[in-house]
Specification:
Helices cover 29% and strands 22% of the residues. It is α/β, with parallel strands linked by helices. The chain folds into 2 domains: 381 residues, TIM Barrel (Alpha-Beta Barrel), CATH 3.20.20; 86 residues, Immunoglobulin-like. The relative contact order is 0.11.
């Protein structure tokens, strides 16, 4: 395996040398873990909280991308998800389509890559961090496989007999029956003939890197909610990091595991936790589906606590919430609550998933992001930690707290309510500023007297946030 990777990276270096143009980003300005608190990100040398929402995941293929990025930036968001989608129409595949209708995997579709380059550039101009997902399992099965350039009968480069790839993969991709994701020697479905596919996969990733390594606002996630053995993602993480190092570029990589919605039993996520050299940040998006209320909080907090021995940013590039799926995406109310529980638990990024599994960048999402930015203007999330034990008279799922005790607090109510805040060892006066999460607007102000347990009641039903800071 090691020798294979060395050979592949040597080939990659040749390809990148031929394709990579323009100046490289300054590593000092690139997205990287925050030096003073590596559970968060910094960009251009300053700590940054990543918040987002968008109307699609393969954002670079949008016709109105520039306008949508402007909308995202106006909302106070600075974080987008970009799957390297291969499910769009025949004119937006990554590979060139010949006159006879077949694809040539040795040639590129100029339009696809032009849109990708524009996305990188336009995101950088707006200080938007773009998290790339290199492979999406849904692009390579069922109806999307029928028009895929990688399907043997759709290209001029190989046949089913030469590669072992079938003409149909009708199962849900979670079944992991697609050999496309087993091209690495030693994987369960690997056969020598799959080396042909891996060669073309490497060319695709090299092409992607020829653009993305020129930009310092990029994070790399290998897969969308994969259930494939971890060897697959680990191969591509090493491939990307080695290629970046050869160019003197600093990058951060991870993988997204499907079973993180039940994190305590996820064997693959345990591998990521224990290997910070390979998984240089964590994506826990799947924790935002199929669990609700206090159970969601317990899972997110558990993930955060487990990551403490090797602190890294913990990202949520998908928060499910539209109520239109059968697997447990939850409602918009659930999405807003998940967004804020993640922030209180210490997550480095929160992004609403696109419709119909999330609320995207609708008015609810915009208000939620605006509210978080208002809180951030008073209390930086990277300066506080979860301290729910400081709340008294709390009902399950009623309220959540992050704090730097005696100095700063962020209190979140899911739907109104009243709790006690333990300030017994904190004399002095504290300023409380409410923020209405439903509207994104400022709410009432109040002063709190320390040295006691202070009762705090939300101004009204609905979600509210409060920033509490020591005066003087």
């Amino acid at each position: 395996m090691k020798r294979l990777l060395i050979l592949c990276v040597s080939l990659l270096s040749v390809m990148l040398t031929a394709e990579l143009k323009g100046s490289q980003p300054s590593n000092q300005d690139c997205i990287k873990p925050y030096g003073q608190n590596p559970r968060y990100w910094q960009y251009k040398g300053k700590p940054v909280l990543l918040l987002g929402g968008s109307k699609t995941d393969h954002i670079f293929l949008l016709e109105d991308l520039k306008d949508h990025l402007d909308e995202i930036a106006r909302a106070g968001a600075n974080y987008v998800r970009n799957t390297m989608s291969q499910r769009e129409g025949l004119e937006l595949k990554p590979h060139a389509r010949l006159a006879d209708g077949k694809f040539d995997l040795n040639q590129w579709n100029t339009e696809y890559w032009k849109r990708f380059e524009n996305c990188l550039k336009w995101c950088r101009e707006r200080d938007i961090i773009i998290q790339i997902e290199v492979w999406d399992r849904f692009d390579f099965s069922r109806e999307y496989w029928q028009n895929s350039p990688w399907r043997p009968s759709n290209n001029v480069n190989y046949t089913s007999e030469q590669t072992g790839l079938a003409e149909e993969y009708p199962n849900h991709p979670s079944a992991d029956k697609q050999p496309f994701f087993h091209t690495i020697p030693g994987m369960p479905l690997y056969k020598k003939q799959l080396d042909i596919i891996r060669d073309f996969q490497e060319k695709f990733v090299a092409r992607m890197l020829s653009y993305s390594l020129q930009y310092g606002n990029v994070l790399y996630c290998m897969d969308n909610e994969t259930s494939t053995p971890a060897e697959w993602g680990r191969y591509w993480m090493k491939f990307i990091k080695t290629a970046a190092a050869a160019k003197g570029v600093e990058v951060y990589v991870t993988d997204m595991f499907d079973d993180v919605w039940k994190p305590q039993s996820s064997r693959q996520f345990k591998l990521a936790l224990d290997d910070p050299q390979t998984y240089t940040f964590l994506d826990v998006s799947q924790v935002n589906s199929r669990t609700f209320n206090e159970d969601h909080w317990k899972n997110v907090l558990w993930l955060s606590q487990q990551a403490r021995p090797h602190p890294r940013p913990m990202n949520n590039t998908k928060i499910y919430s539209d109520g239109k799926t059968s697997f447990g995406s939850g409602t918009p109310v659930d999405g807003v609550e998940r967004f804020w529980r993640n922030l209180i638990a210490g997550c480095a990024s929160c992004r609403f998933h696109r419709p119909t599994s999330g609320i995207g960048l609708n008015e609810t999402a915009k208000a939620c992001i605006a509210a978080a930015r208002k809180v951030e203007s008073l209390v930086k999330f990277w300066n506080v930690e979860p301290h729910i034990e400081l709340l008294t008279d709390r009902q399950p799922d009623e309220a959540y707290l992050a704090a730097k005790p005696a100095e700063q607090y962020i209190l979140f109510f899911t739907d109104g309510g009243s709790v006690g805040l333990d300030l017994k060892s904190c004399p002095g006066t504290f300023a409380l500023q409410w923020i209405n999460i439903q509207t994104g607007a400022w709410g009432p102000k109040a002063d709190l007297s320390g040295g006691q347990i202070v009762t705090i009641a939300a101004p009204s039903p609905g979600p509210w946030a409060a920033a509490i800071t020591k005066k003087g």
